Amino acid sequence: MVPPVNPSGRRPTSADVARLAGVSTGAVSYALNGKGGVSEATRQRILEAAEQLGWRPNEAARALSFSRAGAIGFIIARPPQTLGDESFYMQLITGMETELSKSSTALLLQTVETVEESVEAYRRWAAQGRVDGVVVSDLRHDDPRPAALRQLRLPAVALGGDAQTGLPRVYSDESESVREVITYLAGLGHQRIGYVSGSPTYLHVLNRTKVYTDVMLTLGLEPTVEATDFSVESGRSATRRFLASQRPPTALVYDSDAMAVAGLAVATAAGVPVPHDLSIVAWDDSLLCQVVHPALTAISRDIRALGGVAASHLRAVLQSAARGIPQDPSKDALPDVVQPTPHLVTRASTSPPPTSAMTPAPRSGSRRAKNGKGRVTAGPSTPPDVR
């Protein structure tokens, strides 16, 4: 092994690494922190130079530059009975932890039932210096959290939401995904396509529902929505209501993988064969969707990557704050990060509807479509604005 090259005897710096590798200090920062922005060949040259100099990260200096607590916070504001039903958050947290481990940053996780409880937790964390910043998910209409975080001067990154939240965001275009699903089902011949949505208190659910309704009306079809609280039991109940209706749907789109699996079980128990009489599509592909029979067609996205990008973007926000750049949307301090659009993965749970169900579709000029109305109902299990 070649001994470290450090003739001065002092602790080597990133500037020393940059000089030896023949690159900028910015490139050194990217390479040594595992970020993009440099080619693989350049990254290897920088790593070899660092090894040759005996360079090691100065964790104390890093903490002073980028953070104070060495931890970021993540509060999940969902009722406990619904949180355990989904795999989404476990994958998201895994992605965040993987990214944060690169910089020895801890993740402080807490679950609460309401957004008001989240705000109180943010106040405690800020007062105690527990975290350097937070990731915010499940944004609502008139959500109090963004304003509270600005007041507390606690840096934050939002997952999804809209530009009005005033926080740097990591998001993807779910509207295009909804269009892809409905167009796909209509292309198979389905005319009665129901939507088992999550709680309409969420901005992302409101957006998905609006796009679903608009696409259905554009196709001359009647939108029908059963709103739930995202729990497995509410997914079962919504499926039963759909199947018991006068003109039951031939296809159902569910807002989560767990509810879609629950819907499959209800249909099977009721003697409704999937996909012969009922096609099923789940939002967020998962192992659950792949191991049931028939395997479920699903909207897929890399949730672990989403968690990693959210953590990385928050670290960039913290570095900007350390340089004195205000977290103010009017200053355009940091741009939003747009993730790949979720895409449809077709499996055995979807097929053309039975011939008996392929009746002429209502025309877009009908009274219902013309008025932009469809049947939209909220199941009895829909909670108040606590998600």
Description of the structure:
The chain is an alpha/beta fold and 387 residues long. 42% of the residues lie in helices and 14% in strands. It contains 15 helices and 13 strands. It has helices spanning 14-21, 25-32, 40-53, 59-66, 80-83, 88-100, 115-128, 145-152, 174-188, 203-218, 232-243, 257-269, 287-291, 303-322, 367-370; strands at residues 71-77, 106-112, 133-136, 156-159, 169-171, 193-197, 224-227, 251-254, 279-283, 297-300, 337-338, 343-345, 375-378. The protein has a seven-stranded mixed beta sheet with strand order 12-10-9-8-6-7-13, sandwiched between helices. A six-stranded parallel beta sheet has the order 2-1-3-4-5-11, with helices on both faces. α13 (287-291) links the parallel β9 (279-283) and β10 (297-300). α6 packs across α14 (303-322) and α9 packs parallel to α10 (203-218). The model is unreliable at 361-374 and 376-387 (pLDDT under 50).
Task: Chart the SSEs and their pairings.
Blueprint lengths: L13 H8 L3 H8 L7 H14 L5 H8 L4 E7 L2 H4 L4 H13 L5 E7 L2 H14 L4 E4 L8 H8 L3 E4 L9 E3 L2 H15 L4 E5 L5 H16 L5 E4 L4 H12 L7 E4 L2 H13 L9 E5 L3 H5 L5 E4 L2 H20 L14 E2 L4 E3 L21 H4 L4 E4 L9
Parallel strand pairs: 1-2, 1-3, 3-4, 4-5, 5-11, 6-7, 6-8, 7-13, 8-9, 9-10
Antiparallel strand pairs: 10-12
